Amino acid sequence: FFSSKNTLDFKFMNHRVPAHKRYQPTEYEHAANCATHALWIIPSILGSSNLYFLSDDDWEAISAWIYGLGLCGLFVVSTVFHTISWKKSHLRTVEHCLHMSDRMVIYFFIAASYAPWLNLRELGPWASHMRWLVWIMASVGTVYVFFFHERYKLVELLCYVIMGFFPALVVLSMPDTEGIWELVAGGVLYCLGMVFFKSDGRIPFAHAIWHLFVAFGAGTHYYAIWRYLYLPSTLQARVSK
């Protein structure tokens, strides 16, 4: 019985590793990690293109490009990294660089997700500084990953949380509150996903489940951006009905 159980464990989940080491997914987990983000590459490209074609001015077009690059970049980099990590042979250096890129791109994805709200909504005189502060935060996070990758995992998680919540204070204080509930719902999905992000070796397919929470959170935020920032007012009124 115990032998059978251990065999199943090694198929669907490896043992948890020490804090300073990287978890090695099983073959099944590798496949799930690749698939759960690869599936969203084409939808993210189509969705980003849709926002660009709905743009009425330069600021909307620029914001669509920024958001689209962040959204597509997240899924593409993640998929490439997990594919190389799964099928690697002698690509240790490439895998390491892609793993760093996979972590770095999350910061820019967060900044890009806020860009349409910060660029297209009315902001107060102090709140407007968040338009560039969010990119400084993303840059600081990138530098942190470059120098301390995989060393202080709890600090890394804390950086993501701060990066995700700090700009939200500005968005939530905007005079126009349309889309706020969708933003909150997406944020809740990301936070729930973090439980699985730190659960490799405890929950089978934990990282793939985290990927799904990211996809659903991103989808919720995309819907809010599409509906409240880009959808023409006449169509928006129909959707509201």
UniProtKB/TrEMBL annotation:
Matching entries from InterPro entries are given as: AdipoR/HlyIII-related, Hy-lIII
Transmembrane intervals? 64-84, 104-120, 132-148, 155-174, 180-197, 209-229
Spell out the protein name for this chain: Monocyte to macrophage differentiation associated 2
Q: What topology does the record note for this protein and the membrane?
A: Multi-pass membrane protein
List the gene name: MMD2
Q: Which organism is it from?
A: Capra hircus (Goat)
Q: Which family does it belong to?
A: Belongs to the ADIPOR family.
Keyword list (alphabetical) reads:
Membrane, Metal-binding, Transmembrane, Transmembrane helix, Zinc
Coiled coil (UniProt feature):
none
Indicate where this protein is primarily found.
membrane
Q: Which residues bind Zn(2+)?
A: H82, H207, H211
Provide one Gene Ontology cellular component.
perinuclear region of cytoplasm
Q: Where is it located?
A: Endomembrane system
The GO annotation for biological process reads:
positive regulation of neuron differentiation; positive regulation of Ras protein signal transduction; regulation of protein localization
GO MF annotation: an example: protein kinase activity
Q: Which Pfam families match?
A: HlyIII
